[in-house]
């Protein structure tokens, strides 16, 4: 029997690999506005001016590899096994040590720069420990209630504590408590559109903290409902929130 459009889109998105942190599979199927500051360009500027750097939660190494100049000592960490393999294949030819860990097995005062794009958490005391005095933490992070139009479509209204859990003010307070001075803080809300239900399935499989435990089978009725909504009204619109934080370890 021939599959319906809904069944075909969902099956395709449920079968494709979601390893790494490359979202090119969504080209033409979803769009997300990018923050105006250009994280990778700013990171490249900082990497070019230091002798040692640690990139946390590097994913498949895509962002770090996009920087033209890397310090003589560059280390990247990643805890997801498929991503570790991808990062190693991409970064080791450039002299980067890729470490499979979610911890900090590094000596104190080892790095001039610690960076992270979209970390799940920010362990400020450990970052302070491995940075040299005067060193820099530079990060682009997911902000509060990011893509919550989609989250709440599947999970229903979320409590205020959940919606505000990634507010930049929390990061500033934690940074100061760990001995940092925050020298730059910017935030933006960015339009995101999903053009078909396959894009939604792929996104929720890849960004696993949006709808924890997401599977097609569990959410099939809601997926069908959203498919019909997109077919009738056009792209599903949500808003991604991002903030940029740069902090110097006080000497």
Shape: globular
Q: Which sequence of strands runs across the widest sheet?
A: 1-7-8-6-5-2-3-4
Secondary-structure class: alpha/beta
**DSSP strand (E) fraction?**
25-35%
Report the major sheet. 8 strands, mixed
Mean pLDDT: 95
Number of strands: 8
Can you tell me the residue ranges where pLDDT is under 50 for at least 5 consecutive residues? none
How much helicity do the residues have?
25-40%
Number of helices: 10
- What's the SSE pattern? HEHEHEHEEHEHHHEHHE
Note the gap between the termini: 69 Å
Write the layout of secondary structure elements.
Elements: H1 5-15, E1 30-32, H2 39-47, E2 52-56, H3 62-65, E3 73-78, H4 81-91, E4 97-100, E5 111-117, H5 124-130, E6 131-142, H6 148-155, H7 160-163, H8 168-177, E7 180-194, H9 197-206, H10 220-233, E8 236-249
Parallel strand pairs: 2-3, 2-5, 3-4, 5-6
Antiparallel strand pairs: 1-7, 6-8, 7-8
Describe the structure.
This protein has 251 residues and is an alpha/beta fold. Helix content is 35%, strand content 26%. The protein is built from 10 helices and 8 strands. It has helices at 5-15, 39-47, 62-65, 81-91, 124-130, 148-155, 160-163, 168-177, 197-206, 220-233, and strands at residues 30-32, 52-56, 73-78, 97-100, 111-117, 131-142, 180-194, 236-249. The chain has an 8-stranded mixed beta sheet with strand order 1-7-8-6-5-2-3-4, with helices on both faces. Helix 4 (81-91) links the parallel strand 3 and strand 4 (97-100). Helix 1 runs parallel beside helix 9. The chain is globular, with a radius of gyration of 19 Å. The N and C termini lie far apart (69 Å). 36% of the residues are buried. The mean pLDDT is 95.
